[in-house]
User: Fold this.
Amino acid sequence: MSGTLNLKDASLLKTACYIDGAWVGKGAIDVTNPATGEVIAAVPSLGASEVRSAIDAAEKAFKDWAARPAKERGQILRRWFDLMMEHQDDLAVLMTSEQGKPLAESKGEIAYAASFLEFYGEEAKRVHGAIVPAPTNDRRIVVLKQPVGVVAAITPWNFPAAMITRKVGPALAAGCTCVVKPASQTPLSALALAELGERAGLPKGVLNIVTGKASEIGGELTANAKVKKLTFTGSTEVGKKLMEQSAATMKKISLELGGNAPFIVFDDADVDAAVEGAVASKYRNTGQTCICTNRFLVQEGVYDAFVEKLVEKVGALKVGNGLEDGVNQGPLIDTAAIEKVEEHVKDATSKGAKVVAGGKAHALGGTYYEPTVISGATSDMLVAREETFGPVAPVFRFSTEAEAIRLANHTPFGLASYFYSRDVGRCWRVAEALESGLVGVNAGLISTEVAPFGGWKESGIGREGGQWGIEEFLEVKYVAMAGL
Ligand SMILES: NC(=O)C1=CN([C@@H]2O[C@H](COP(=O)(O)OP(=O)(O)OC[C@H]3O[C@@H](n4cnc5c(N)ncnc54)[C@H](OP(=O)(O)O)[C@@H]3O)[C@@H](O)[C@H]2O)C=CC1
Ligand SMILES: O=C(O)CCCC(=O)O
Assistant:
């Protein structure tokens, strides 16, 4: 298989699961390249009992791992970061082959994913407690921070590496151990990460990767009382279900769910800069990220200019197999994804919107879809309410700042928002008025390992990244030292 993928280090193509430091199970679930439809590998379909053994291994490894000095845990994470960067090219080929994103984006994601290991390797040393002034002189109030224990992580296919390291990096840095269930469509990146983690010196049981039927694995991970924390990125529907399932054992939870990101362009914006930000925010990963713009809200004075310039830029995007040179947009992940995109475009045009770029399946066939722009979008359309998760840019028109804010916030979701304006007063006002966890002001790409990432409203609970990300894996303990 690695022959087909032409990896420099063939041992990065792993097709077994990783439990307690051993590679277990045989190929049962096909992994398909969405660019070609070709099966590139098969991974095991583990059941509840194997997941239980992974949880047991993580629990057994927890005591020693948590007891290691933070500096030592940090050094292992740092070595893991170095190995990821050393193998960036191979990891990117694996990712593009199972996920479809252009190779340059995959390389970017590997560097982004590795940055969480680097950052949290350093942050491990900064898990500070506190000594609080006590109300009487005979005692001291001490606040300790300790790892929560075994962590279950369930991750999606759109960022096959970064969604794992963004969880596992801080969890391991804090002293927790992990059982990870990657998406069935993109398990190869996860398994390659485990191989590199082992080479970096992770002791057995500290990191475990299981693949198989989602409901069965998810059922065990949420029901098992040994798991103290669940961290999930994926659809809102599954996130809510996992939250419900985790209630019985009162697990700590972090959920990073769907969004419906608005991108507002005010009359005073630099329209060229806005168009550049729009393309980056909308068409990255073929529109399949939870922070991709879902709705462009453009003020009437620059509406026509924005649409015209956007159409021109979008027309220059090259669609194709992500492994080929110069490709900007790969295929969608699967047929269900392209069907959703088609439904949204059909619904919008049936309600009066006009397709001004793309608007149909791409001539390459399969799950390729043309980069699309729709003008005249209105709030009764599906594109206004639902996450399209595809390369479609619906452009809505508004007249006042108050109307833009109302439209932007008119959604149960609150993950990312973007806006372009050159008025500093407006920049502060609007940034503060938007109901979302992330706001890009004159910027369409804002993800970084040092900042908090997470949603308001139904977009989720908790934060990943920066100093906030590690808190999710720590318990706070108040120790009253009395009789002094
Ligand atoms: N917020 C985000 O970043 C993402 C949002 N989405 C949104 O969700 C839509 C559907 O995408 P989809 O991939 O189906 O997202 P899901 O939420 O279904 O998948 C995300 C992860 O959850 C797992 N999963 C699915 N069902 C269960 C379950 N019952 N118990 C435990 N784990 C489960 C999946 O496993 P398996 O792969 O084995 O099914 C995968 O590992 C997309 O079109 C998009 O709108 C999707 C991905 C990421
Ligand atoms: O789509 C997601 O689930 C993750 C967002 C990617 C990013 O961190 O930019």
